[in-house]
Specification:
Ferric Hydroxamate Uptake Protein, Chain A, domain 1; 907 residues; TonB-dep_rcpt-like; mainly beta; membrane; transmembrane; 5-stranded mixed β-sheet; signal; 42 strands; Maltoporin, Chain A
Length: 907
């Protein structure tokens, strides 16, 4: 079991020293440490940390779950403003922000997805004050007035449902207090970074308290759009929140929260790693690109805009009835996301993207928990969730606009016991009802036709094609509408769950838990394709032309007419039509990158998934002494089927079988073909992905002595049917990755050699493997190591608090270091590697040093300085195939060094 109570890391030399100290004091092998948290530790430095990872309050040491805890004080000292920076103190967690401020993926132990498609449920669930945030964009507001953040590693489906097959991030904010007080803070740094935040709390009456907090965060962009003379990758966001705490009696408590957050940013910097064969065409149509990856210079045809409005409210009621606790959480949230972006990432008007999204969320949670003196306690609950989301688009040779809406309603009911006897329990029920609608469109840019004509090697190529196929002149890739899509999905699920703790002897606890989930999705997709070229199959067009030119053959315009020809004639026509030497039209195939797709539901595809799954937990925990706890567990997890709500949605192979060159004339018999439902250039394979099923074996130890703490977790985790979602250069492919596993360990140690000095060292070691993945976008990956998962992730820290006698003044100095070992970013790119057969795989290694120093005066005034990425480490976050530019590789560079000073006043 590992816990990241605070994650202060030091420079590389200090890392080695801290690691050596851990080896000597703890065990042979790498250790992961954390500092004590003065805000939450008990008197006499007993280091008692209260967590709610099991949906009941327990100390961190007695919680037999691999959970990392980062305190509010650590977030403050390390200048961690949002969950993007949280990974520097939590080695098992990785957070990636990609093409926009709202496109974020959370990954735990190498597993995570769901950032770019609203039809794909996340594998890592994010909860803020018990309220589920169904989209990552709803979890990105600045972290303010935070009590702690718990990161639960591994499958958590027993208590957190079908959205937690890889883990959970739980943010717990401070409750209002009955003593008046607050904090005001202002910070200024490079790139004109300015952060102002504050919070105030106090009593209204003897049993009602309030709190108000807010933050404003603005920074110039660290990148530049050269041709437009505009900054890129800036920071411009604010948030506000108000709370009421009402306690009519000692057994009844109501907490009311309302919040609003706004992001309006120009994001994000994309650099070119490899300029492919299309680069000369970019320059020829007046565009440009920069191949110096870390120059932070880019060329775009328009300024990318991303605005996010995230707001809502919740009411939580806790009622103690004897040794039972009933908890109800009711919440409503809305998320609106707008994105307008150039997605070919050059100054040529080739592809731009616009997204306009909205998410409305309503949740209701009710829990009953027991607190008996007996050996058995329970928790029973119900949860109801309502979530709504709106718009998403992409284009520049093509521009895209998306309008999305998600309505979600949830209801959870839980009853938990706290008996003195040997048995305690938790029982619950959960209901989930979500509806999603999306309208999106692509628009062809002004440079598209010229750009693609240059790639074809003939500026008049499309004029000749139009003449030969009988199309109006200048109709192919003419500026204007390219596609329009309409998507809708309704998801209803319910589950029952519970845990039972049996303590037959003092210190020995056996736990059994279960969750049964029934999940149903109904979805509909429709498209209108306005691209003349994409609506023509080039094999079938050749056959039609050949038969019309041959007086000995009947004209062929349909599959039935082709199938009526003698078999030998069919084979001769098909051989000529699929041979580039005889069919020059085949050279146009790469330009049919947005073909139409088959609408559904239809007579073959009902547009429905139905999943049900029983997951469970078995665990034994033993308190060897007051200082040492041991545990062993086996748990399973589940995530329901996901739907590809995009224009790349294609029917499953078998429902439809395309002919050579996606020919409809020569397509073999299949339900879709037999039903006369096929459309031109129909492909297969990315309509939806089946359920994920996870399991994890884990053994761990938690130990705490005076001046030294040590935690260890060893695990073997497997996910069958992991839902792989990969960008292919013009769209996204969704499919199941047979089986993926990871073995490893998480270890942490905290050392207090003397008063005021705390060393921590934390490490996660992962050994992942594709046990089976036959049909990935880059070929058969069975037996390969999944890309992007480093073998080692390390976070180490040193904190020294210098007290100036009895004055009450102190100087707090913090140094932390976060490291990820060198790793292949992915297993190759669908175009650059698989299609073009390039063997180059791009690598990433991170070495981040952060530092802060704060002088705290007894009167509440604090003056400090801070730096993140102090040594200006540069690394590639991720890479992808250039949009509509075969052979080009683009990627996201890391953020440069930032630093500044702050003034804070506590009252």
């Amino acid at each position: 079991m590992r816990s990241t109570i605070t994650g202060i890391a030091g420079a590389y030399r200090f890392t080695l020293l801290a690691g050596a100290a851990t080896f000597a004091l703890a065990m042979p092998g790498t250790a992961f440490a954390q500092e004590q948290d003065p805000e939450v530790e008990a008197p006499e430095s007993s280091n008692v940390i209260i967590v709610t990872a099991s949906k009941r309050e327990q100390t961190l040491q007695e919680t037999p779950i691999s959970v990392s805890v980062t305190s509010g004080e650590t977030l403050e000292n390390a200048q961690i403003r949002d969950v993007l920076d949280l990974q520097t103190v939590t080695p098992s967690l990785r957070v990636s922000q990609l093409q926009s401020a709202s496109a974020t993926t959370f990954i735990i132990r190498g597993f995570g997805n769901g950032d770019n498609n609203f039809g794909i449920e996340p594998s890592v669930g994010v909860f803020i004050d018990g309220v589920f945030r169904s989209r990552s964009a709803a979890a990105l507001s600045d972290l303010n007035m935070v009590s702690r953040i718990e990161v639960l590693n591994g499958p958590q489906s027993t208590l957190f449902g079908k959205n937690a097959s890889a883990g959970v991030i739980s943010v717990v904010t401070k409750e209002p207090e009955y003593e008046f007080g607050g904090v005001v803070e202002a910070s200024y740094g490079n790139y004109n970074a300015m952060v102002v935040r504050g919070e105030v709390t106090g009593p209204i009456t003897d049993n009602i308290a309030f709190s108000l907090d807010g933050s404003y965060n603005k920074r110039d962009g660290y990148a530049r759009i050269v041709n437009l003379d505009e900054e890129l990758s800036d920071r411009n966001r604010w948030s506000a929140r108000g709370q009421l705490l009402i306690e009519p009696s000692t057994d009844f408590k109501i907490r009311i929260i309302g919040d609003y957050g706004r992001i309006d940013e120009v994001c994000c910097q994309v650099s070119t790693l490899v300029a492919g064969p299309s680069a000369p065409a970019v320059f020829a149509v007046g565009g440009a690109l920069d191949t110096n990856f870390f120059s932070y210079n880019t060329f775009l045809s328009q300024v990318p805009r991303n605005t996010v409005d995230n707001y809502g409210g919740s009411i939580q009621a806790d009622w103690n009835v004897g040794n039972l606790t009933v908890t109800s959480i009711t919440a409503y949230r809305e998320l609106k996301n707008f994105l307008d972006q150039d997605v070919d990432f050059t100054s040529a008007d080739v592809v731009t993207e616009t997204r306009d999204q909205k998410v409305d969320t309503f949740t209701q949670e009710l829990r009953i928990a027991s607190d008996f003196d007996g050996p058995i306690n329970f928790l029973l609950g119900g949860f109801y969730f309502l979530d709504q989301d709106v718009d998403f688009t992409s284009a520049d040779v093509v521009t895209e606009t998306r309008d999305q809406k998600v309505d979600t309603f949830t209801q959870e009911l839980r009853i938990a016991s706290d008996f003195d006897g040997p048995i305690n329990f938790l029982l619950g029920g959960f209901y989930f009802d979500e509806s999603i609608s999306q309208d999106s469109r692509l628009t062809t840019g002004a440079d598209t036709r010229a750009f693609f004509s240059l790639l074809a090697g003939n500026p008049l190529v499309f004029n000749g094609v139009e003449q030969g196929l009988g199309l109006p002149q200048n109709s192919i890739f003419s500026p204007g509408p390219l596609t329009a899509e309409q998507f809708a999905m309704d998801n209803k699920s319910w589950s029952v769950f519970g845990t039972v703790d049996f303590e037959p002897a003092d210190g020995l606890v056996f736990t059994a838990g279960f969750n049964y989930t029934d999940d149903k999705k109904d979805f509909a997709l429709a498209q209108q394709s306005f691209d003349e070229l994409a609506n023509i199959n080039l094999v079938d067009a050749f056959i039609t032309g050949a038969t019309r030119a041959n007086p000995n053959l009947p004209d062929v315009f349909t599959r039935a007419q082709f199938q009526a020809l003698p078999g030998a004639v069919q084979q001769q026509l098909l051989a000529a039509a699929t041979n580039p030497a005889t069919n020059p039209l085949l050279g146009l195939t790469p330009f049919q990158f947005q073909p139409p797709f088959l609408n559904l539901p239809n007579a073959v595809e009902p547009g429905r998934t139905q999943d049900d799954q029983f997951t469970y937990l078995l665990r034994a925990a033993y308190e060897v002494s007051n200082e040492v706890n041991l545990y062993a567990s086996y748990a399973t997890g589940f995530k329901a089927s996901s739907i590809n709500l995009s224009r790349d949605s294609r029917p499953a192979f078998g429902d439809y079988i395309p002919g050579p060159g996606r020919s409809s004339f020569a397509a073999p018999a299949s339900p879709i073909t037999n039903g006369g439902l096929g459309v031109a250039n129909l492909g297969t394979g990315s309509r939806f992905a089946g359920p994920e099923k996870a399991q994890v074996y884990e053994i761990g130890m938690k130990a705490q002595w005076d001046g030294f703490g040590f935690n260890l977790a060893l695990f073997d985790q497997t996910i069958k049917g992991f839902q792989s979602f990969l960008f292919t250069g013009t769209g996204f492919q969704l499919n199941n990755a047979g089986e993926q596993s990871v073995r490893g360990f998480e270890v942490d140690a905290t050392i207090n050699p003397t008063d005021g000095l705390v060393f921590t060292f934390a490490a996660t070691h992962l050994d992942p493997k594709f046990n089976s993945f036959d049909e990935s976008p880059v070929g058969n990956l069975t037996g390969a190591r999944p890309g992007g998962i480093p073998a080692w992730s390390i976070a180490t820290s040193a904190t020294y608090t210098l007290e100036f006698g009895d004055s009450g003044n102190s100087l707090v100095t913090r140094l932390d270091y976060a490291h990820e070992s060198n790793v292949a970013i992915n297993n190759g790119l669908p175009t650059f590697n698989a299609a073009l057969r390039n063997t180059r795989i791009f690598q990433r290694e991170t070495n981040l040093v952060n530092a802060s120093m704060t002088f705290k005066l007894e009167n509440g005034l604090e003056i400090g300085a801070w730096a993140r990425n102090l040594l200006d480490d540069q690394y590639i976050i991720t890479v992808f195939d250039g949009v509509a530019q075969a052979g080009t590789v683009s990627g996201y560079p890391s953020q440069p060094r930032t630093y500044g000073g702050l003034v804070r006043f506590r009252f």
